[in-house]
């Protein structure tokens, strides 16, 4: 099979985690950059990446990279791409993208030029003047940064954070891909006991179980590239069977979540059921003030942020309570994500390690307290 340059965007701060994931699935020529990891692989690797990667936002094929300061240069650069190797006569090829710090700054104009170049290329190759675009979708993405144009083909469709288990969420959910990265940084293992005292919609509990049991997060969803003519259904079937064969059914892992809100507890347990891990995780009603620290636990949580769910002073008081309840000397570790720069002052202890992460557009720190 043909080899492609594959690009996986990720949350800033999770590049090393995603790099390790890609090594595990046997990607080749892996390189990390700001907010993304690139590697080489064939269509089977593209299927494996979509199904198995927990911290990637999506899986893209890089089609071309070139410099363009005029629309003519953009048109000619795109027209050189052998798009006929991917897009059939009846298949759709919409265009979207962005431009930053470049001469070509009008997004609608760039979209129009790129679309026109794609049509012209395919018209010459197929000998037709009209494209129905009634078949499977090949989403073309472009990024223009300092006059360097990069053209991608999106193989995922909906973002990879959409696992399928979280149909609903509380008011301030953490994204599944970010949660998975934090779980990885917390070194959750098949025999771990994970606790989330602010479980919200249960995302940390579910992503921890997926990691511990080696359940591929995309195993139960569909991807855009599955409908492409160049992507054989047998490849995706084999990769799903491979993923199923690697599930650790005998793992002793357990997870327990708590929340003061009955609706969050109900939501967490509903999502846990949808995720298929009810025998490994559950959520219960309990206020943080009544939280009893558990021995030999990995505690992971995303406490409410002052600017979103609580007044700032209430959030700071919550951090003080956590500092009293999350005790040292019980062979526990704690991983707390917060945007508050003075979190450690309210918590009462300096973290053993900090890592800068972004929860959406919110700059946060992951405060890590080791066993």
Features:
371 residues, 7-stranded mixed sheet, alpha/beta
Briefly say what this structure is:
Helix content is 31%, strand content 23%. The chain has helices at residues 15-24, 43-52, 71-79, 107-126, 176-185, 203-213, 233-245, 262-275, 312-325, 343-347, and strands at 4-9, 28-33, 36-41, 60-67, 95-100, 139-145, 148-154, 193-196, 254-259, 281-285, 298-301, 333-338, 353-359, 362-369.
Report on the architecture of this protein.
With 371 residues, the chain is of the alpha/beta class. 31% of the residues lie in helices and 23% in strands. It is built from 10 helices and 14 strands. It has helices at 15-24, 43-52, 71-79, 107-126, 176-185, 203-213, 233-245, 262-275, 312-325, 343-347; strands spanning 4-9, 28-33, 36-41, 60-67, 95-100, 139-145, 148-154, 193-196, 254-259, 281-285, 298-301, 333-338, 353-359, 362-369. A 7-stranded mixed beta sheet has the order 2-3-1-4-7-6-5. Strands 10-9-8-11-12-14-13 form a 7-stranded mixed beta sheet. The longest helix has 20 residues, at 107-126. The protein is elongated. The protein starts with a strand and ends with a strand. The model has no long low-confidence stretch (mean pLDDT 93).
The main sheet orders its strands as 2-3-1-4-7-6-5
Radius of gyration, Cα only, in angstroms?
Answer: 23 Å
In round numbers, the mean pLDDT is: 93
Structural class call reads alpha/beta
Largest sheet: 7 strands, mixed
What is the N-to-C order of secondary-structure elements (H for helix, E for strand)? EHEEHEHEHEEHEHHEHEEHEHEE
Strand share of the residues?
Answer: 15-25%
DSSP, total strands: 14
| Secondary structure: helix percent | 25-40%
Low-confidence parts: none
Number of helices: 10
Quote the distance from N terminus to C terminus.
47 Å
Shape assignment: elongated
């Amino acid at each position: 099979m043909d080899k492609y340059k594959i690009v996986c965007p990720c949350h800033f701060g999770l590049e090393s985690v995603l790099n390790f994931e890609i090594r595990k699935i046997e990607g080749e020529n892996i390189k990390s950059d700001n907010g993304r990891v690139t590697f080489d692989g064939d269509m089977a690797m593209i299927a494996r990446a979509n199904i198995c990667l927990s911290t990637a936002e999506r899986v893209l094929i890089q089609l071309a990279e070139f410099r363009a300061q005029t629309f003519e240069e953009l048109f000619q650069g795109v027209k050189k791409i052998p798009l006929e190797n991917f897009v059939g006569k009846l298949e759709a090829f919409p265009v979207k993208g962005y431009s930053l710090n470049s001469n070509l700054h009008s997004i609608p104009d760039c979209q129009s030029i790129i679309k026109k170049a794609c049509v012209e290329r395919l018209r010459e190759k197929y000998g037709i003047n009209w494209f129905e675009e009634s078949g499977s979708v090949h989403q073309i993405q472009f990024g223009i940064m300092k006059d360097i144009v990069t053209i991608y083909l999106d193989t995922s469709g909906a973002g990879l954070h959409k696992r399928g288990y979280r149909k609903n969420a509380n008011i301030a959910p953490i994204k599944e891909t970010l949660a998975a990265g934090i779980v990885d940084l917390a070194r959750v293992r098949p025999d771990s006991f994970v606790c989330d005292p602010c479980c919200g919609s249960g995302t940390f509990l579910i992503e921890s179980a997926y990691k511990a049991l080696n359940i591929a997060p995309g195993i139960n969803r569909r991807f855009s590239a599955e409908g492409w003519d160049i992507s054989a259904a047998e490849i995706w079937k084999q990769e799903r069977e491979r993923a199923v064969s690697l599930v650790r059914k005998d793992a002793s892992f357990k997870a327990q979540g708590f929340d003061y809100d009955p609706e969050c507890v109900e939501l967490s347990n509903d999502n846990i059921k949808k995720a298929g891990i009810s025998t490994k995780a559950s959520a219960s009603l309990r206020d943080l003030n009544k939280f009893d620290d558990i021995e030999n636990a990995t505690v992971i949580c995303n406490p409410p942020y002052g600017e979103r769910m609580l007044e700032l002073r209430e959030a700071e008081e919550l951090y003080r309570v956590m500092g009293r309840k999350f005790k040292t000397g019980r062979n526990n570790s704690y991983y707390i994500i917060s945007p508050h720069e003075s979190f450690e002052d309210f918590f009462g202890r300096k973290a053993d390690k900090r890592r800068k992460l972004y929860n959406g557009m919110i700059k946060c720190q992951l405060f890590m307290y080791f066993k």
